[in-house]
Amino acid sequence: MKILSEREIEQLFDSFCKKILKNKAHDIFKAEKKELENQISIEYLLERHHEDNHLFSLPDYTIEAHAFPLVTVNVVISLDNEELAEALWLLKEESREVLLLYYFLSMKDEEIGRRFSKTRQTIQKRRASALSKLRNILINKVRYEE
Length: 146
Fold this sequence. Notes:
By secondary structure, the protein is mainly α. It contains six helices and two strands.
C-alpha cells in the first residue's frame, strides 16, 4: 500500500468533493425540471376557466340571524325560535353567552366562570340578571304586539 503525501490527500479530497457537488447539482437540476413539467401556469388556468369563473370559490361564512357563535367554546348554537333569537341579540355579548352556555350546553356556573375568569357567584348573578332582562324583552314584545 502506497503512503500518500499530504498534498495528494488534499487533491483526492478535493476531487471527491467536486464529484459530490457536481452530482448534487445534477440532482437539483433534474428535480427542478420535473417540477416545472408538473406546474400549470396561472394564465392557462385563467384562460381555461374564464367563462366558468370556477377557478376558485369562497366558502360561505355568513352567520344566520338565529345562530350564536360562542367564542369561549368554539361552538355555534342555532335557534329555531325567531323571537328568542332576536331577544338574545339585544343582550350584551357576555350575558348572552352566559345564558347560552348554561341553558344550551348545560355548563355549570363554575365552568362558565373559569372561561370568563369570574367567580361562580358573579356568573350566577349575571345569569339571573340576563334572564330577567330576556324575560322583560319578551314580555314587552308580547305587550307591544297585542
